[in-house]
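Hi R.,

Quick one: here's the Amino acid decarboxylase sequence you asked about.
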Amino acid sequence: MTTPRAPHEETFDPRTPEEWAAFRTLAVRMVDDMLTHLADLPAQPTWRPMPDAVRAALAGQPVPRAGIGAEAAYADFVAQVMPYPNGNLHPRFWGWVEGTGTPLGMMADMLAAGLNPHLAGFDHAPALVEHQVVAWMGELLGMPGASGVLLPGGTMASTIGLAVARHAKARELGRDTRALGMQAWPDAAAPAPMVFYGSSETHGWARKAAELMGLGDRAFRRVPVDAEYRIDVRALRAMIAEDRAAGLAPFCVVGTAGTVNTGATDDLTAVADVCRDEGLWFHVDGAFGALVHLSETLRPIVAGMERADSLGFDLHKWGSLPIECACVLVRDPALHHAAFAAPASYLASMTRGLAVGGLPFADRGLDLTRGFKALKAWMSLRADGVDKLARLIEQNVAQTRHLVARIAAHPELELLAPAPLNIACFRYVPDGMSEPERDALNEELLLRLQERGIAVPSSTVLHGRFALRVANVNHRTRRADLDALVDAVLLIGAELARPSAVEAIP
Ligand SMILES: *Cc1c(COP(=O)(O)O)cnc(C)c1O
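And here's the predicted structure, written out as tokens:
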């Protein structure tokens, strides 16, 4: 600050006190505009399609060789980007499983980016914050003392868990997968194909992980589900026995706490028993459902989760933190470390200075340079408290029960699957229509709900039938928002079932 910068010495910082003042004014306006955006959400449509002019402005522009300045770049953001996100902040957004974020989480992400620390490890306060968040999560979710690391999403969290499982179980079988991978080398015994299990309702991360890890999709054994969409534990035991008889090497069972389609939770105690009896690793995908454990009243739903060897879950879904924030916990810290630690001379730990303690987070996954995702978790949990998060989860479950009751009360609405948690799958069923016609009607109904900005459910297919799917991880939703959805479904459903009624709808 004391030595003035020569005009030819470039920097991305403002260069003079005047430039700093101007940037400060712009920065304050950015914060102000975004807070206004958040405060005004309920009055806005849930989603608005992009006008063609905006589409054109955002595509095919020449590479900006010379800058237009922060003011102009920000003005373009305000005009072209800010009005057209996917709507997941809105109180009537229940599509897929997308978290809503929070104002405090947003500010924490800004602070994290401002501080911009390197979270491979190192001996600095941000690292202690992440260690603290991981320790809290272990304690809160029934895995005290577990090793953990924050990750971008549940896909990565469960993939890391599965990778630890593979390494640990292969070692028991006498194979070092870190050295040999899954390949048959001429000078080493050919490995039995390693296979793992999960229900047919397991999220798509399992397939990606199997492919990435060189196991192949074939190694993911999809176990049938019962009428409640939970893994059929007898079928699981039978498949393991058959696979062993066929010379395969089972290594892991994935149980799901909160399936993506219907919010079902496997009988995790029974799955844990299978894993104990068979010597298999027990991984739980609790992308959104793991946090149910925070609620004393709902905890029985995920009983058995606390017996997991590893647990992957999101904080950006039901935890309401801004995307991206997820976590993997591994019960045995030594096994977690053994699966990923990769010492290098340029990353060596020192006895003093900044590199004390090495790079513990880099040793728990694939990432080396990592951002300060822990800050939003740490600040939000401290500011609001875990009890409030538990109450919000209970609120979403109660709201979903309310929605289910409204569906049950109306003869033209049909619930298509049990709704044990926060997901309801249903459809509009007018008399005198074939199943294909009903599918087509409900698909059009969904699109009209979205395009008119009324609400955003997403869809799925259950037993071959097209379903409107409401997944409620939304802390902004009120009961009245779900009532508005039901009213709109009935109205649009009638409009579609009786084309003559279309003119009557504005
Ligand atoms: C969302 C989800 C995932 C994937 O998590 P991402 O954060 O989207 O990567 C995995 N499993 C289940 C059950 C999910 O709902």
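The chain has 15 helices and twelve strands.

Cheers,
M.
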